[in-house]
Amino acid sequence: MKNRVVSGYRPTGRLHLGHFHGNLKNMVSLQESHDCYFFIADWHALTTDYRDTSKLAKYTSEMMIDWLAAGLDPDKCTIYRQSDITSIPELVLYFGMTLSLGELERCPTYKEQLRELDSRVVNTYGFLGYPVLMAADILIVGAELVPVGEDQVPHLELTREIARRFNSLYDGIFPEPQPILSKAPRIPGTDGRKMSKSYGNYIQLDEEPGEILKKINKMITDPARKRRDDKGHPEVCSVFQLHGAYLPKEKLDEVDGLCREAGIGCTECKKMLAENVNESLAGFREERKRLEKRPEIVGDILREGSLKVNEIASGYLAEARNAMRIGAL
Fold first, then answer.
1. Are 176 and 144 in contact (CB under 8 A)?
2. Which of 5, 89, 143, 148 is deepest in the core (most CB within 10 A)?
3. What is the pLDDT of residues 171-202, one digit of tens each?
4. Phi/psi zone of residue 192: left (φ > 0), alpha (ψ -120 to 50 degrees), beta?
5. Within a domain: 151
6. Is 141 a domain residue?
7. Per-residue model confidence as pLDDT tens digits over 123-182
8. Residues 158 and 45 in one domain
9. Which domain holds residue 172?
């Protein structure tokens, strides 16, 4: 049998280059060789956007259309919405009973977000418990593999620890999922930080060519290179980092050498990057426009996916309840 894979995205609007290179491209590839379960993580969206949920349905549809336009095929993978899976919250409750506060507070992503975002938004029970919900998402379908970016590896290790602890305390039910790391380079945003909706430094997959060029022209390059004839240091340049997602190694090495010897200017380098990004997204934009004319496809796919996943999830939850003697007389 094929190994079971699970991955999810928060519906925060249309997807950007960081999403595509960080995980989505990998998901499209995995559906060809694995038993894949991909979900829209609308409960996870509440960890930061709980104050305004008015756009949640719209964002769910937009992200689904992005997934389909990028190549996810419901005939090759199972696509569903997290909140349609009724067994997840109960499993979150059971897992949470076994975790200490310190284990959650030590999670690197939690500490990073406390620094980067408004603490009034993320200093909540829901945000602190994000890794527990993530563990339930993964284990409720018995996933063996999880495609993740490097920043999510600590969360996945906590999932593995939750599975080990549950299996030790009770009967061995859950597999310990292994990570599938993306081979893509770190995708920088226009301000040099990791590309993120939270930071407002992203390039959407469906943006028009002119807008993409405008955003790339604003990207931070080598701060020490003030004139065209100054020699550059590509290792500190955000534009060069993004080149790594589009250029083969030989061409990337060539750009590296030209930059170091002032053989190419930052404006030329940015123009080259914008051309490559736009060329890579041409097919996506065309397919997305076609799918936008069929909005009913989103509901049809989610309904079919939830039926399949609820059957699997209820089986794992029943096993967990039985192992813990919940409801036993």
1. no
2. 5
3. 889 999 999 887 766 799 999 998 988 789 99
4. left
5. yes
6. yes
7. 889 988 999 999 999 999 999 999 887 777 888 999 999 999 999 999 889 999 999 887
8. yes
9. 4-187+295-324
